[in-house]
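== Polypeptide entry ==
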Amino acid sequence: MQLTLWTYEGPPHIGALRVATAMRGLHYVLHAPQGDTYADLLFTMIERRDRRPPVTYTTFRAEDLGRDTAALFKQAVSDAYERFRPEAIIVGASCTAELIQDDPGGLARALGLPVPVIGLELPAYQKKENWGASETFYRLVRALSGARRDTPAEPRLCNILGPTALGFRHRDDLVEVRRILDQLGIRVNVVAPLGASPGDLGRLPEAAFNVVLYPEIGRAAAQYLEKAHGQPFCEIPPIGVGATRDFIAAVAALAGVDPAPARDAADSRLPWYARSVDSTYLTDKRVFVFGDAAHAVALARVAAREIGFRVVGLGTYERGFSREVRAEAAAHGIEALIADDYLDVEAAIQAAAPDLVLGTQMERHVAKRLGIPCAVISAPAHVQDYPARHSPLMGFEGANVLFDTLVHPLMMGLEEHLLGLFREDREFHADAAPSHLRARSLRADLPPPSAGEGGPRVSEGRSGRSPAERGPQRKEGAAPVMEVALTPEAGFPSPDPLRGPPSPAEGGGKAVVAAASSIWAPEAERELKKIPFFVRGRARTNTETFARERAIPLITVETLYDAKAHFSR
């Protein structure tokens, strides 16, 4: 066991709770101590649901451990049934209660309740949240789907499997997938778990095939339905324009319909922009992708094939899907990162030196420390990544959302550079007068511009307060706050691969630290500031490495350009 500050997935009973919360008429009795009830906050605070999850906790205390905790659990199950009258009950133990070994499933079935009772065995110390959601859904489908149909199913009738509560954009993805199926003339029989009841699971065999949107949740159930009820399934998450077209073709083939109505209804701005001259700014930008397996693989393909980025890192925290991620990484000529320790991911990002990070909430924090633009494309995520508005990732509208998600961070970086480039211009600096025609009369009290500069620094603000009132300012020559990887087109490519990435002592890390033996001349610092901030960090690192290797004590403008020429070879 490893103690960590952050974790990508919770224990498996959280996955079971996601399935229970997504469904109607299902209640979850969880054998758990006081303190494990924190799970409610995941839905009411982050997903902002308007009702509590359908869960009853036994909430045993320390003094209860010397008594009969099994009796406490049975009483909790009885009380939950009498109060909520669900169609079905699932029972299990949290990671703490698992150590007591009270057998929740056997205890609940012994009560003889008039509804199905499904016991869950979720090994908290070997498995994680997504596995727990998958196992819970599989157990429910196996227990409630009923016998195999004797009559053939309607070929244009399907089930949608995988969406859950607290799923990353699951609600919005479902809207887009339904729209595609409607354009193809395919009817949806059951959507599960999201919005389904135990009775709805009994109608699953009526469909001709299944559509699995999220393999980490729905694959096990789909495989069971294929074996027990002869239902084939499509497992292509329609994320991106290319994947959406592949999804349409696959679903149309299963239903025996023409894919043209949905395929020709494509309404995405991503393809035309990728073909436009404006997109050359994005070409070959280095991107690092990390998240759950389905989203990581899909976003790597979108970034490389549909926008023109270069994938320099790809990984997942889901070890059960490592084969798919490794195969996709190999297609990009890199080695996949399979890790559930955010510190390992941070080290990999730092070594890859990307221009953009596509990851989870953890990578958002990592990229912020490293000064790299970032977009969240996978769970775990925070409240801002569960918008109240419609914001899918799937379908053609989802491709529009991805277009904004991937392009905007880099475009805003360009704007930031232009603002910084003109911040000391005589007409545009922070303390410039409202009109250049009245500048001398209105601002006669201002001190003259410093030597070699067009005016006061933008960091001094417009308020006209004294330096003491404004607080400490960034010193001349200090490293900029936002510094990320340097692109080849800027003339400062990555360091020699044989040397590897710079260590924090050599200038790597979240801020570029100048070596003690390298001192920047003022004119070299001013020249460095003309380089866009999103590549300035690598320029500083390469220049200091160049100077250190040649024992150059003072970095001048000539040293800066000599280093550029050296690393551009």
About this structure: The first helix runs from residue 12 to 22. Residues 239 and 394 are 5 Å apart (CA to CA). The radius of gyration is 29 Å. The longest strand covers residues 154-161.
